[in-house]
């Protein structure tokens, strides 16, 4: 049995507490991720609302979908992911292949800064997921939203960043402006 098959088997057998998630984010194996805070959930809800109004009927916007990248031995559970209905409904493709996703969204928390900004950026680019939306209230230059596009050679070749409060245009198949003016600012996030 390969290392990847072992990790995936372990992930499938986990009995994860309600609200928690399990991911394979690096070479250390399976990692449990704590339930998100209220500000995190508010942002996820606002982004979900925007996306759901814009997507074609055959594209799902989901919050608890595991996506696999066997070539790099990773399995992420994005905060939001846009995945074709045909892939989600195919029991032979669980967890879903990351290269079928149209968009992955990660909302940075204090505990996930390094993972979301570096490890997942690298992983999604390698998958490749065409669009990676990073919502980062903890950005050193101020709360920001960055859309990474055009993956190639294991990295994204284009990035557009706006500050919280501004709009960011998401390209096809979404073709919608994401209004970030209602995103909670860092002083509204829990300190622990």
Automatic annotation (TrEMBL):
<dbReference type="InterPro" id="IPR008538">
    <property type="entry name" value="Uma2"/>
</dbReference>
<dbReference type="InterPro" id="IPR012296">
    <property type="entry name" value="Nuclease_put_TT1808"/>
</dbReference>
<protein>
    <submittedName>
        <fullName>Uma2 family endonuclease</fullName>
    </submittedName>
</protein>
<keyword id="KW-0540">Nuclease</keyword>
<feature type="domain" description="Putative restriction endonuclease">
    <location>
        <begin position="14"/>
        <end position="176"/>
    </location>
</feature>
<keyword id="KW-0378">Hydrolase</keyword>
<dbReference type="GO" id="GO:0004519">
    <property type="term" value="F:endonuclease activity"/>
</dbReference>
<keyword id="KW-0255">Endonuclease</keyword>
<dbReference type="InterPro" id="IPR011335">
    <property type="entry name" value="Restrct_endonuc-II-like"/>
</dbReference>
<dbReference type="Pfam" id="PF05685">
    <property type="entry name" value="Uma2"/>
</dbReference>
């Amino acid at each position: 049995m390969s290392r990847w098959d072992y990790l995936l088997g372990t992930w499938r057998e986990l009995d994860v507490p309600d609200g928690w998630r399990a991911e394979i984010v690096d070479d250390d194996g399976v990692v449990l991720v704590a339930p998100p805070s209220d500000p995190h959930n508010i942002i996820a809800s606002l982004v979900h609302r925007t996306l759901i109004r814009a997507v074609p009927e055959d594209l799902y916007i989901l919050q608890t979908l595991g996506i696999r990248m066997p070539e790099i031995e990773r399995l992420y559970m994005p905060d939001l992911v846009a995945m074709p209905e045909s892939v989600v409904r195919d029991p032979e493709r669980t967890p879903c292949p990351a290269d079928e996703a149209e968009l992955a969204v990660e909302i940075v928390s204090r505990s996930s800064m390094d993972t979301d900004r570096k490890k997942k950026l690298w992983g999604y680019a390698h998958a490749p997921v065409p669009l990676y939306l990073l919502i980062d209230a903890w950005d050193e230059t101020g709360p920001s939203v960055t859309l990474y596009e055009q993956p190639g050679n294991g990295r994204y070749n284009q990035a557009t960043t706006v500050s919280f409060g501004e709009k960011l245009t998401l390209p096809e198949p979404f073709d919608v402006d994401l209004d970030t003016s209602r995103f909670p600012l860092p002083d509204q996030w829990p300190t622990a």
